[in-house]
Amino acid sequence: MRTVIRGGRLIDPAHHLDTVTDLFIAGGRIAGVGRAPDGFTAERVIDARERIVCPGLIDLCARLREPGQEHKATIASEARAAAAAGITTLVCPPDTDPVIDEPAVVELIRRRAEAAGQARVLTLGALTYRLRGERLAEMAALQDAGCVGVSDGGRPIANTLVLRRALEYAATFGLTVFLTPLDAWLGHGLAHEGQVATRMGLSGIPTAAETGTLARDLELIRDIGVRVHFCRLSSARSVELVARARAEGLPVTADVAVHHLHLTEVDLAGFDSHCHVRPPLRGARDRDALRSGLANGVLDALCSDHQPHEPDAKQAPFGDTEPGISGLDTLLGLSVRLARDETLSLPVVVERLTCGPARILGIDSGHLGTGATADLCIFDPDTDWRVAPDTLHSRGQNSPFLGWELPGRVSHTLLEGRVVYGDDRGPT
To answer: With CB atoms counted within 10 Å of each terminal CB, which end of the chain scores lower, N or C?
Structure first.
């Protein structure tokens, strides 16, 4: 369907665009920016005045709980939640059940995502068989099946020799490796090691659990030359290590989960299990360093680290609860709040949610150039919405942000030119 989006503030960081203009869509692709192509007749008009029009958001880490944990969520339910949040591309890590270590699982996820039709779902293959860190997975076959990279799935490989062999294998096939910097022995606590954890009687996870592994991995990257993306950094020292590595020319990128930019260890007060996450919430200095790293480009992307849970998973004593936050619904709002607080500019926020993740994945997405796939998010940065069970679209309600007022109400989400969320008549 030929569509014109009229009068929105178009933010396309990949093309350094930030202007009020019209956008034209035909055949599921961008047909023109600012000027209609010859012979273009709109069949649908979306009024985007006083709204932001930007590429559809790309979330680098969303656990969709399918296959294997459909009682928590399904690809269909979470894809609908993504569409309502302006997210058009979700990246599924390999820690499904069964693990994404063979092409059949990749195909299963692809077919179910296509059947849902609400968001594009990309997969990361497992670095090792069953993510056990013992023998290598068939990475070449996973790449051929459509995996956009390979990952430890949040289960770091303790054996350095196995990790080295895995990185060498990935480098041979030009695969990006997604690694979780966490020491297998130091990382068994419940909260950031510090005064808060001590006062609450919670076992601590020291910063060295992240930085020690990160330093090891950077030395392996230096030897091998493999392209590596570090997932969900949580500490100031990690930002320093990545900045130094990039200055030295190492092919590394990194992201941060958006909740680490708003919460700290003090939010654990009252043993709030909704703040039980991995990596743990750290101190204010770490939070501020992560914000700075995102602003200056050391950190390339924001993600939700979406982990939907059933209510029971968060209702046990703190140490017995499942870590993780249901984050799809709040990804855009929490990110736009950074711009409202003047921590980042709005174009930088959009960049870290669109073309930044696209570059990491090596995909032609996250931009609105002529001929690009018409994946778009239209939202009002000045309209607030309240985070509440009845405003969350994900099956997971486990969010520490319940009760918060967040900016950035999505009016439309388009996937390949189709309106998958919103009203064809335009914003109301």
So the answer is: C
